[in-house]
Amino acid sequence: MSISLDEVRHVAKLARLELDESEVLSFQAELNALLGHFSDIASLNMGGAEGQSHAVSHVNAWAEDLVGPMLPRDAALKNAPVSKAGLFIVPMIIEE
Amino acid sequence: MSNQETITSLSAADLSAKLKAKELSAVEVTTAFLDRIDSVDPTYGAFLAVDREKAIAEAEKAQSLLDSGDAGPLTGVPVAIKDNISTTGIETTCASKILKGYVPPFDATVVSMLKAQGAVILGKTNLDEFAMGSSTETSAYKLTRNPWDTTRTPGGSSGGSAAAVAGNLAPLSLGSDTGGSIRLPASLCGIVGFKPTYGRCSRYGLIAFGSSLDQIGPFGKNVEDAAILAAATTGHDAMDSTSIQSPGIDLSGLKEGSLKGMKLALPVEMFGDSGDPKVAALIQDALDRLRAAGATVTEVSIEEIKYGVTTYYIIAPAEASSNLARFDGIRYGARQESKGHIGLVEKTRGEGFGHEVKARIMIGTYALSAGYYDAFYTKAQQVRAHMREKFLQTFQEFDFVVSPTSPVTAFKLGEFDADPLAMKLLDYCTIPANMIGAPAISLNVGYSDGLPVGLQLMGAPMADEALLAAAYAVEREFADVQHTPQLL
Fold first, then answer.
1. pLDDT tens digits along B63-78
2. Which of A36, B84, B338, B440: CA 20 to 30 A from B156?
3. DSSP H or E run through A13
4. Domain ranges of chain A
5. How many angstroms separate the CA of residue A92 from the nearest CA in chain B?
C-alpha cells in the first residue's frame, strides 16, 4: 500500500493545509512509512466485533436546560484577528 | 544551602505543612520559585510564560486564607501548568505559532479548582506542539532540557511540566496524557506522573488533541504530592460531557497500601527485546524486590498491545484532524490573508502549524477519508475494544498491571531527528492505558548510567485510589534509590 503525490495533495486540500512542494514530498515519505504499520491491523480479522470510539461509554450526558454564565461578547471577540461592530470579520464568500 | 534552595527542594506536602505552621509565608515560597526560574530556566527551558505579578498577587491572597485558618493542602503552594490548559489572562499557545498571542477568556476547570483552593499559578510550561511528540522538541518556541543531563530531552509531550518539577522550578505541575505524555516525561525525569481514569479529571479548557484519549494529570516529586494534586483537580464537572459522575480522588487510604499479597500482571508484550537491555535488567531487579516484599508478579499475554501503537496512530490523528479544524484564523490566533475564505484558512494553517502537527492532521484526514475509513479507523476501534476487553479480564484476576514506563532512559536532543517514527514506537507501554481509559502512574525505581528509570503501574478504570496507594507502597520499598539530580 502506498500513497501518491497527488493523493498527498488531495488529503492536504481536504485538511485545508497549504503545503509547499518540499512538504508534499516529505509527507509522502512519512505517510508511506506509517502506512506500512497500518497494514498490520488492516489485515487483522476482527469478525464483526463492535468498535469502541470512547474510553468510557456515556449515554445521554444531558445538562439541565438552564441559562448559565456566558462569555461576554467583547471577551469572545478579544482574540479575533479582525472584528468589527461586535462581529468576526471573514473574507467575502459570495462574490459581487 | 540558601533559603531559596531549601524552599525549592521541598515537597508540596512539606511546603504546605510549613505554610500552615507559619514557618514560611506564601509570598516567600512563590518568590523563591520565581527567582529560581529567573536564574536557571534560561538553561532548562521549562517555561513558556511566567507572570510574576499575578503569581505574587495569588500568593498574597493565599496568605490571607492561611491567616484565617481556611487553608487546604494546596493553599500557597505554587503549581506550573502545561501550556495547552487554558488560563485567564495568561497567554496559552500549545507551543504553536498558530496560537501566538492567544489569551484565553476563561480558566480550564482544573485551573479554577486550583485557584479556589488557594494554589498559586506559577506559569505555563513548554510542550510538544499541541502535545504531539515524545520529547518536547516539536515546540515552536524552545527546547526543554532534562535536569539530569541537559544534553538530553525531558521526554514529552509534557516535558516542561516534568522538567519544572525535576529541576525544582515548581513543587507541582499539571500535564496532559494522550498516549503517555505525563508518564513518559515523569519516567525520563525521575519523578512521579499520574494519569487518572478517563473522565475523572475535567477536560474543560484543555485544548483538545485526541478527545477520547486526553486526560489531565499531576506531576510531583513523590507519590503523595502527585496524589494531593490529583485529589485537588478531580471530580464531576458539568462543563465536560465525558466527565464521570463521581467525587474527586479520595486520599484517605493513600498510606494504607501494602505489597504483601499484591497480585501484579506483567504483559510480555510490554517487556520485549526492543528496549535498552540495561533498562530491562533494572526493571527485572525492581520486580524481584517487589516479589521479596510479598507481591506476586505473573507474566501474562495481551496480544492487542502489539497493535497499540498502530491503533493509536490512527485514532489520535483522526481525532486531532477534526479537533484542530477550529484553528482557521477567524476567531483566534494568527491569520494569514490570502485569496478568498478557503485560501485564508489554508495559508493560516499551512504557516501556523509546525511539521509534526501537519503530519498528524494529514494522517488523520487520510485515515478518515472515503475508501480508507473502514480499513483503518473502524479496524482501529475494533482493536481498541478487544484490548479493553482483555485488560478488563486481566484486572479480574490481578490487582495491577506492571511494566517499564519507557523501554529507554532519556535520549539525546535530536537523537530521533532522522527517524521520527522510531520515537513514536517507544510509546507501547503507555498507550494501552489511554486506549482503555485506565489510570496509570510512573515512579522512579533506579538509574541506568545515571539516568532515571520509571516503573509503570496501571489499574482498572476507577481504581485510582487503590493504584495511588499501591504506588505509595512501592515508593516506600524503593526509598533508598530516590535521588535528586545535580541541579544548576
1. 999 999 999 999 999 9
2. A36
3. helix A5-14
4. 5-42
5. 7
Please answer yes or no on whether B244 and A56 come within 8 Å at the CB atom: yes
Separation of alpha carbons B251 and B332, rounded Å: 40
Using the structure block, give the residue that is written with the C-alpha cell 489510570: B439
In this complex, the residue of B241, B337, B376 whose CB is nearest that of residue A42 is: B376
Closest in B342, B355, B379 to A46, CB measured:
B379
Per-residue CA distances from B399 to B86, B393, B438, B469 (Å): 36, 11, 13, 12
| Inter-residue contact B51 to B95 (CB < 8 Å) | no
Confidence of residue B1 (pLDDT cuts 50, 70, 90): low
Helix axes B223-233, B109-116, angle to 10 degrees: 100
User: ipTM value of the model?
Assistant: 0.94
Domains and CATH numbers, chain B: 1-488 (3.90.1300.10)
Q: Are the C-beta atoms of residues B155 and B188 closer than 8 Å to each other?
A: yes
* DSSP-derived 3-state class of residue B132: coil
Cα–Cα distance, A24 to A6 (Å, whole number): 9
Predicted pLDDT of residue A53: 85
Give residues with Cβ within 8 angstroms of B61, minimum separation 6: B118
Is residue B127 within 8 A of residue B116, CB to CB? The reply is: no
CB contact (8 A) between residue A55 and residue B212: yes
Q: Encode pLDDT of B350-373 as tens digits.
A: 999 999 999 999 999 999 998 889
Min Cα separation B362/chain A (Å) = 6
